[in-house]
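User: I'm designing a mutation panel for LysR family transcriptional regulator and want to avoid disrupting the core. Could you give me a predicted structure to guide residue selection? Please restate the sequence first so the numbering is unambiguous.

Assistant: Good idea. Sequence first, for numbering, then the predicted structure tokens:
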Amino acid sequence: MTTTIAWEYYRSLLAVLKHGSLSGAARALGITQPTVGRHIAALEKELGATLFTRSQQGLLPTEVALALRPHAETMEHTAALMARAASSQGQDVAGTVRIAASEVVGVEVLPTILARLRERHPELVIELVLSNKVQDLLRREADIAVRMLRPRQEQLVARKVGDIELGLHAHADYLARHGTPAGLPDLAQHAIIGYDEASPFVRNAGAAFEGFSRDNFAWRSDSDLAQLALIRAGAGIGVCQAGLAARDPALRRVLPQAFALPMETWVTMHADLRGSLRCRATFDALAEGLRDYVASQALT
């Protein structure tokens, strides 16, 4: 006999796994702590297995609970997708759009573009997922993504907006104190801001430039925002988008002829979303705004 277990039981299970306690799960879900406890107890009864054990550190998940987590997360993604699909019905550009982008693009570039979009379509709700990890559009972790590589999946719609150029930059105060390098070998005499763990793109790019390797960095971070903040603070020389640096009169391009990295930039979404007015309007606004941003590099 097949047992049908209510989705809210798995929803409570996932919340307890994420927050480590019944009270934390209840706050996240907007329900009472006893309700979460009843859901967990009912799920344990249906499954015939213990899901959590109590300890001084809180509720500890059993192997059964950990094995159920990826399936509960899939259910959560599906529920969110259904809610977004329902909100997109109608003749107006309205509802929720989930956009994935890198940290620096999401913080430094997209806000102006998206603010203009919402002025035109005030019924839109924007969710920004900022991470340097590539979100899976096929699993609908996001509706639309801004990516720095060409998508290969046939199920995705992709539009290239141009190449964002990366270059070495430093604050004018840093260069006044330490001088401006005349060539790549001179970087050995400077405080270089770089990565901690190299991505495939960074490894390939760094191999082309002598002296630009982890062992030579005075500052290491995998956060693009942290690296940009260090450059702006005058901590050293680091890699920055040329378009961003051009906005700050205190930043100077260093060795532009010797160090320049173009990054292909694409706006992508699942092909199934082409009929969604909210997604199509957002996709077009991102493509147009990012094309303008890429074009601004020509003025630097």
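For picking mutation sites, this is relevant: Residues 63-87 form the longest helix (25 residues). The chain has a mean pLDDT of 84.
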